[in-house]
Amino acid sequence: MIKLETPVSEQEIRSLKVGDTVLLSGIIVTARDAAHKLMVEERPDFIREFLNESMIYHCGPVVKKNKSGMWKFVSAGPTTSAREEPYQATVIKEYNVRGVIGKGGMGPQTAQGLHDQGAVYLHAVGGAGTLIANTVKDVINVFKLEDFGTPEAFWVIRIEELPLVVTMDSHGRSLHKEILEKSRRVADQLISN
Question: Which residue of 25, 112, 144, 162 has the fewest CB atoms within a 10 Å radius of its CB?
Answer without folding.
Answer: 112
